[in-house]
Design brief:
Blueprint: H1 21-31, H2 36-43, H3 50-58, H4 63-70
Helix pairs in contact: 1-2, 3-4
């Protein structure tokens, strides 16, 4: 198993004051190849495990499928 997606890199890895959690999550998702709209929705959904999403994508799972696999099931969906 690799953890390259979990290591900070790219535009989100900047010096200066820390950014808020949602912005950090959004940046990590965008860096990992998630489309803008999906990344924004997932970044603001705290019930979705960001690290699990990134691990799935790191293993070759398309971002949309990774999001579907880890999306919380609403009571009306069962």
């Amino acid at each position: 198993m690799t953890t390259t997606s979990l290591a900070p890199r790219g535009a989100c890895c900047v010096d200066g004051p820390p950014v808020d959690v949602t912005t950090w999550r959004l940046c990590r998702l965008l860096e990992s190849g998630f489309p803008q709209g999906l990344a924004q929705r997932l970044a603001s959904t705290r019930t979705v495990d960001l690290h699990a999403l990134l691990q799935l994508v790191d293993r070759g799972c398309p971002p949309e499928l990774a999001a579907r696999i880890l999306s919380p099931v609403a009571p009306s969906d069962v």
